[in-house]
Specification:
The protein is an alpha+beta fold and 101 residues long. The chain has a single domain, classed as Jelly Rolls. The protein has three helices and four strands. A four-stranded antiparallel sheet has the order 1-4-2-3, with no helix packed on it.
Amino acid sequence: MATPHTPAPPFRTNRLLGALTEDEYAALRPHLTAVQLGSGDTIYRSGERFAHAYFPLAGTASLVAATHDGGMVEVGSVGREGLVGLAALHDADGGPLETFA
């Protein structure tokens, strides 16, 4: 009995991935995995070593800094034009920001 074919996620809806040449994308594609994140899900915690980079396909990731009084303020956002977790590509520690879906 044949198993149903699951279509590949539309990774190239991310503008960085969409801008790659066919050869570049073909080399990277085996390393891409789709993950489903809900609104408010934590992607990275402050100071955490980044294990993965994320290329948003829809929605935005929110980069948040802690304030002196214990609050949080959004200092940036990344949508399908970019990626979050660049430090993962350089095997570097994360910075002082937290990142949420």
